[in-house]
Structure formats: structure tokens, C-alpha cells
Amino acid sequence: MKLRKVAKWILISLGIILVSLSAWGWLVTYHPAEVQSEPVICSDQTPILKPGQKLKVLNWNVQFMAGKNYVFFYDLLDGSGPDERPSPEDITKTFNEVSRIIQDEKPDIILLQEVDGGAKRTDYEDQLARLLSLLPEEYSCYTSAFEWKASFVPHPRIMGAVGLKIAIISKYKITEATRYQLLLMPQPVTRQFNLKRAVLEVHMPVENATDFVVLNTHLEAFAQGTNTLEKQVNQVESILENLTQEGYPWIMGGDFNSLPPGKAYSLLQEEQKKYYTQETEIEPLFEKYQAVPSLQEVNSPDCEQWFTHFPNDPSVGKPDRTIDYIFLANNIRLGKHCVRQYDTLKISDHLPVLAEFELPSSP
Question: How far apart are the first and last CA of the chain?
Fold first, then answer.
């Protein structure tokens, strides 16, 4: 009888502990709706687009302004990277370099991934606000969405707050912003503490014409052994298909964490192939829409000039893959485009992708 009573109290106590831990985990983490509006900050003097206008977009994963002097724990497949955060000095240097590139290129629209906001590793700073303070006043319209947010993550290499965003900055008026939640990784115990990948969509009015739609995303990087990335691409494809059917001109940029179709997989070191599948998940987007870089460019003899990722893994000594893209609706006229490599190799583990394009000239 005594043993049964002891066992009963042990089970009750364990149950209370588990319920308490679950409640705590829910309270300290972020729970966005499947579709939700995001705030837009925009000056009243921000100009409106015109039909047929020529524009330039910059797409860049800025790696929370960390620079290239580190191998973070997640940069190696076994999680054994020695570093957990960048120094304040390297953060400041990287901010200045990112600002330099933006001011040199003068893009009309900026799509950024991995911008910290309230994270312990970057001293709880609002990195988007800091970057905007370094840019000309004409970048007066912006919005962002969290893809990772928690007041405490009990990972031994984190043990503190996280906050990571995707952001859109524009010289032209944005009237609304929407966040679409993407499929989460199949991790029932830890998923609330992990990244919640998303698509950020904004509408930009065009004088006497249909809105121009701009989208930004950052797909799953650690989907090995699951079909999560494939399903996220399917969600993206559905969003773009709906916009296309409704007649919107649109562009979408992001870090898709997926190789382009063709020879890209065969060019990787054997250890690096473990991050990807040979049959790339992103192929449907290449089949339907214009892409920067294009399928021809990433499979050309000069494919290295289109590499966008320079891993922090010390075994990889230079950019060796393309995983960042800009996709465009077929009613958009694509112009000059490139990956700026020559002076950006020490700024981030990703390189900026740039494209000039022209809006439809009539509604």
C-alpha cells in the first residue's frame, strides 16, 4: 500500500512538473497566426510607384550583422562550432559595411533576412532600427516579421532571448504587410523554441494601376531527413499562384536554402551534400517564373559568379553554392542582375543578389 501511494505521488508530481514546463514553454515563445497583419512604418511624403517604372531590388541574408570571423555552433552539422555570438566591434563593422553596399547600389527595395531584434547574442538591439539610422532618409517605408522569437531558449549554446526577423525596406509607399506562417519542423517537444519560418508580403500602390506586391522569405535550413522544405516551397508556390491569378505584378526574394536544379549538387564537397537533396525542392518555382539567377546562369561554365553562399564551415574556403534568389512574375520585365561578390565576402555568409526590373506599363 505504501509503495502504491509513493508511486502515485511520484506520478502526480511528474505530471505537475510536465504541465508546468509546457505552460512555461508556451508563455516564453512566439505563437503567430497562420496569416496576420504586420505594422508598416511609412512617411506621409513617401512617393507612389508609376506604371512602367524601372526599379532595383537588393536581396541579402545579413547573418544578424555578425561578419565572417566566426564558426557558430550551428554552422557545423554536428553542432560543434566553437562560437555563440559576434563581438560588438564586429557587429558595428558589419553594420557599416552593409550600409556601404546599400548606399553604393541605391536599390529601391531591400529584402533582408536574419535581422536580429531583442536577441541576447546581439545585446538585445533592434538591428533594423540601427540599420535604418545609417541609411538615407529616402528609405522611409519599412516593415518586418519575426521568424524566431522567445524570451528564453533553454539550449545550452543560447540560454537567453532570441529574436530574428525578415524585413522589407522601400523608397516607395507600402500600404499593407501580411505575414504567412510556413510549416514547422516535426519536433513536438522543442518546436515552440525553434524558428517559425514565414513569408512577408507587402502591397505597394501603383498610380492608376494594380498594386505591386513584394515578398520576402527565409526557408528551413535544417530540414535534413524531413519533407519540411518541400512543403514550405509548396506553400510559397500557392501564394505566388494566387497573386498571379489575381493579376498582380510581383517579385519575391529570400534565402530559400535550396540548390537550383542542374549541376549544383554535384559541385559540393561530400560533407556539404548532407544539407541538401539531389532533387531540389525549389524546381517548381524555376519552371513557372523568372529567376535571378536563372537556370541557364547557374548551370553555365561561369556558374561561380552566381554563388550566393559562403559557409562559415572552415572546410569551405570560398562561396560554393547558390541558395538565395529573386523570383519575378512573368509580367515583370527583368533587366540587369548580378550577385555582388567582389567586395562582400567578409560581410556575411551570404552575398547580396541584385536585379533591375520594370513594372507593367498598363493596368
Answer: 81
Side chain identity at 18, as an amino acid letter?
L
pTM: 0.95
Q: Which of 13-17, 29-33, 219-223 has the lowest mean pLDDT?
A: 13-17
- Residue 89 to residue 92: CA distance in whole angstroms: 5
The full set of domain ranges for the chain reads: 1-30, 34-358
**Residues 290-305, mean pLDDT to the nearest whole number:** 98
Q: What are phi and psi of 220, to 5 degrees?
A: -65, 130
How far is CA 327 from its chain centroid?
14
C-alpha cell at 322: 547558390
CA-closest candidate to residue 169, choices 70, 56, 257: 56
Long-range CB contacts for residues 314-318, cutoff 8 Å, separation at least 24: 314/71, 315/269, 315/271, 316/269, 316/272, 318/345
User: In percent, how much of the chain has pLDDT > 90?
Assistant: 88
| 162 Cβ contact partners less than 8 Å away, ≥ 6 residues apart | 119, 120, 121, 148, 149, 150, 153
Architecture of domain 34-358: 4-Layer Sandwich (3.60)
pLDDT over threshold 90, residue 177: yes
